[in-house]
Amino acid sequence: QVHLVESGGGLVQTGGSLRLSCAASGGTFSAYVMGWFRQAPGKEREFVASISRSAISTSYAPSVKGRFTISRDNAKKSVYLQMNSLKPEDTAVYYCNSDYNDWGQGIQVTVSS
Length: 113
Prior knowledge:
Blueprint: E1 3-7, E2 10-13, E3 18-25, E4 34-39, E5 46-51, E6 58-60, E7 68-73, E8 78-83, E9 92-98, E10 107-112
Parallel strand pairs: 2-10
Antiparallel strand pairs: 1-3, 3-8, 4-5, 4-9, 5-6, 7-8, 9-10
């Protein structure tokens, strides 16, 4: 079991940027594939991005490809999501997770039009 806590969310204007962080405690962070998901009101939780254990491989949802960048720092036991060129449709609660099905509590990202 690993505990995940997100930070860095907030309110930003269309076209702006935010950087989300997810800090892990417990478990063995470097052993986990890490990812970001998001859930907008009235919608199912959807995949955003993932990153391999050694950060060699990344994957993105088509809707964020080219705008978002996932990264990790295993020494700091953290995973990040740099979000650029934000759109109102990016508004959601963002969750980090591991491939062991650990989830953070979520953090709100709101993009004003």
